[in-house]
Design goal:
heterodimer, A: alpha+beta, Ubiquitin Conjugating Enzyme, four-stranded antiparallel beta sheet, 4 helices, 31% helix, B: alpha+beta, Ubiquitin-like (UB roll), five-stranded mixed beta sheet, 2 helices, 19% helix, globular
Chain lengths: 144, 90
């Protein structure tokens, strides 16, 4: 990750931290990989549940991030039970929605035209808000 | 408890570098939808196919038909977040 992206992220991460705190969550910057953050999030309907999301930016804000659920901060992402059941989310695999690098890669022929990745504003906050909305409004429980 | 006649409105939007929208004080019966449209105009957010815009407050989506007075409850003002959602999965 280039220095400009790192500087942009550092500026925008404060709003993400504030947003997650308001939603009983937390944001932690990865100590070893630049551009990687670990989000702790809860569905509003099940406050006892905790999910850990690895958000990895390659170029900020120019490209969508890799977004995967993990067993914990720094944990692996290929365990189904670490993931929530939400339409468009493939537990243990990837999120096929137009806010993730994985989704855009799977739809490389249509989404860049239908849903071009936005580059204006706080894109990190946009991703966090989208994840929280999915957890609050479309959550069907923990994957098995 | 006195009924509030006017509610202060502010709206933030992650996909904009603009300052938050300051709607000033509006009559309490004003609907959320009216304020959403004003905020979209301020932020230059255009309706798009397969995309919905909505306001959230207190961590919850606020239906367009709700009034700002209902959202505010006992408060003098409400800070909304404008959300853009693409309603198409893979």
């Amino acid at each position: 990750m280039d220095l400009e992206s790192q500087a942009n992220l550092e500026e925008d991460e404060k709003a993400v931290e504030a947003f997650l705190l308001e939603n009983s969550g937390r944001c932690t910057r990865d100590g070893s990989v630049p551009g990687v953050y670990w989000l702790e999030m809860r569905p509003v309907s099940e406050q006892a549940e905790r999910y850990f999301v690895r958000v990895g930016w390659s170029s900020y804000p120019h490209r969508p991030p890799s977004v995967k659920f993990a067993i914990g901060i720094g944990g692996v992402t290929n365990v189904g039970r670490a993931w929530p059941v939400i339409s468009g989310y493939g537990p243990g695999n990837f999120i096929c929605k137009p806010f993730t690098a994985e989704g855009y890669a799977a739809h490389s022929t249509d989404w860049p035209n239908q849903h071009p990745w936005p580059t204006t504003g706080n894109l990190f906050l946009y991703v966090a808000e989208t994840l929280q909305s999915d957890l609050d409004e479309r959550y069907q429980g923990r994957a098995q | 408890m006195p009924v509030r006649e006017a509610i202060g409105i502010k709206v933030t939007f992650a996909l904009s570098k603009e300052k938050p929208y300051d709607g000033g004080e509006v009559p309490a019966p004003t609907t959320v939808g009216v304020e959403r449209e004003k905020a979209m105009t301020y932020f230059g957010a255009q309706p798009e196919p397969n995309t919905v815009f909505y306001l959230v407050a207190h961590g919850q989506r606020q239906p367009d038909e709700r009034t700002v007075g209902q959202v505010a409850g006992d408060a003098d003002e409400v800070e909304f977040g404008l959300r853009k959602e693409i309603v198409q999965g893979g």
